[in-house]
Amino acid sequence: MPSAVLRRGGLVMAAALGLSGPGVAGNAPAGGTIQPERWPAPAWPLPADPALEARIDALLATMTLEEKVGQIVQGDISSLTPEDVRKYRLGSVLAGGGSDPGGKYNAAPAQWLAQADAFYEASMDTRGGGKAIPILYGIDAVHGQSNVIGATVFPHNIGLGATRNPDLIREIGRITAIETRTTGMEWTFAPTVAVPRDDRWGRSYEGYSEDPKLVASYAGAMVEGLQGKVGDKDFLDAAHVISSVKHYLGDGGTSDGKDQGDTQIGEAELRDIHNAGYPPAIAAGAQAVMISFSSYQGVKLAGHKPLVTDVLKGRMNFGGFVVTDWNAHGQIAGCDNTQCPATVNAGVDLVMAPDSWKPFYESTLAAAKAGTIPMARLDDAVRRVLRVKFRLGLFDAGKPSQRALGGKFELLGAPEHRAVARRAVRESLVLLKNQRGVLPLDPKKKLLVAGDGADSMAKQSGGWTLTWQGTGTTRADFPNGETIWEGLKAAVQVAGGSAELAPDGRYRTKPDAAIVVIGENPYAEFQGDLPTLLYKPGDDSELALIRKLRADGIPVVTVFLSGRPLWVNREINASDAFVAAWLPGSEGAGIADVLLRGPDDGIHYDFKGRLSYSWPRRADQYANNVGQKNYRPQFPYGYGLTYARASDLAPLSEISGVSLAQAQPGQYYGLGMLAPGLSLTLEAADRRAVSIKTLPAAADDDSIRIAAVDHRRQEDARRVTWSGSAPARLSLIADAAKDLTREANGDMQLSLALRVDAPPKGEVAISVACGEGCGATLPLRDSLASLPVGQWTTLGIPLKCFALAGANLSKLSGLLAIETSAPLQLSFSRIALTPQGEAERTLGCGAKK
Asked: CA quadruple 630, 631, 632, 635: dihedral positive or negative?
């Protein structure tokens, strides 16, 4: 466990900061004690506009109650149609992560624009008697318009924080707005101004820095880039979009870095650290603020009236509208996804109800009719939404394809845009080690480029890139970009040298130096939460690769791709040079610019990046405590070597402080993510397996299908449907065989959190495999039939049952398979090894068919 002095949050940090009394975890009421008069009071920069207010008054006076409610409901494009917008007069749509035209992540830009046109035209269709109120179309353009094929993909925010360059941030915002407008959207859910205080948080890379001062210096700049500068003639013109500053408030301070968790700190820390980005964003005229999934002192922010209404709208003079995150209202006490008057009454103006929009609309309409939502509050919410639409000029803009940038797809990944992204990559790189001046490398010599990140656009771009998790894409999906390998290869060829790509490090001829590109695989949100900061626990293959090359007498430069600092002391020790490259995006050539010598054999570009997050000394050093007296990181905030200022690095301690058991708690699948080294497959009757890369997926003969569903969080579960047309199997496969004899001897069980959606109509089997002709099968039908349909429960299968049935548990390669030839539908949200007794139901070793 980490030392208490290194953990952020709760009474320990409150004492360290000199906080006490009401508002400190442990003695505060639910929701904390909030004193608005002690918060900043930025000036809202847009003066009152009587002509604009008159237009809003005139429109509001003619709107029916149904139309008003429609304006404060936002649905997702995967769950509604243009006809739904026309019928229910919805005010907004969004394309959430994984929602795309036609359900295709690689939909063409023209398809995005055509869909935007269709939704706009539906909102302006008055044939049914409704008012013509243009739709607002929002999307997560969080590091460029990275949802669309061909767009410029900028480094994620953690890398931008390392540049210390607000002007560059402003320019990135401007380009993102342009490329977003070409495809028909006028609203991005950015910037994130979280101040991450625990690197285990799966959204750490969305924050610019652990330092609130740096975050504050970027917030207004990004808002101005996206929207234009208040007072300038191009403010909110057709080349700009509205921004949503997020996630209000304290999302980066949750206990143990748990996404959507509870922030248990005092009011002063909440205000001075986690609120730092909001005053400058408001002063820059941000038109929207998105409310966090998380809680403050036990109360969900989406229902926290003192913070939303009294502080944000009251004390801080925010004059735009407040929107929730994806179904965040459903997490408020007394609410669910289909009904929540409390969120509107707390001050939310637009409710993101992506797949629950229709029942939410109906329940909100009923609440307004009953007076549960006061008419004054409803009118205020509608007025705020309409005000932004008028400011943006939507009522006179025409459909997206007819606007100034609509359909100008040549702007997606335009050369000048890519040049800015390449510069951002160069300036974000942080040099942690350069022993004996091995860098810069001579491009005229023979270079080896190794590691699985060297030629992977997905890995260098991270989450929120074409798909929600950034997974399941191909190189062809990035026509306007270069991988790190491609950038290095091009630079070396121009210089007259040679470069060889060998991901596994097995070179044909011995190189003069090697660049090894390793790092985290893509993830987003809670799927990236970690139990410790140990890098790839239990998998030392990359470390072995570096050591092998060094043993061959080859200097090794390691380029580390990650969405956060991680404990990589062994990898740093094994390398001659080590570069933190974060998640650089589409312009991998920016790395070659800095690592290689220039045309005159001198320094082409020096390292400019400085750590915006301190780097851990041990894998249990989770917290970022800028300025705290007793905090001793491996590399402090602001660290970064240059060619002009370098020194050798003494060997780092290789004591991680955590065990593999802590880092690998036996979870195979959870929070929508498989553990490293595992895969899910669908197998048809002919045993041809389909590896599941993206969702939804199906076997070739459609005998089995899988899709994402919600359990405790957004898309954290998988629903499997057997049609009954032929035998079919769902399998959980390990890349390398696992030895579970110790776990079986310890009475461990395979535990499944599942829900039977349609009961079995025939025999069902669950099995494990241990090689050709080796395995064990247990009957599962009766156990499933005994479970309540439509309710989540946990089912445990003792490992010893598989052993008694003939499996060799010392070499399990198939960790789980469920097979039937009859109709069946079930969902699962977790597969893990747990102690016996923790499951609600247990399958006995003598189970009958």
From this structure: negative
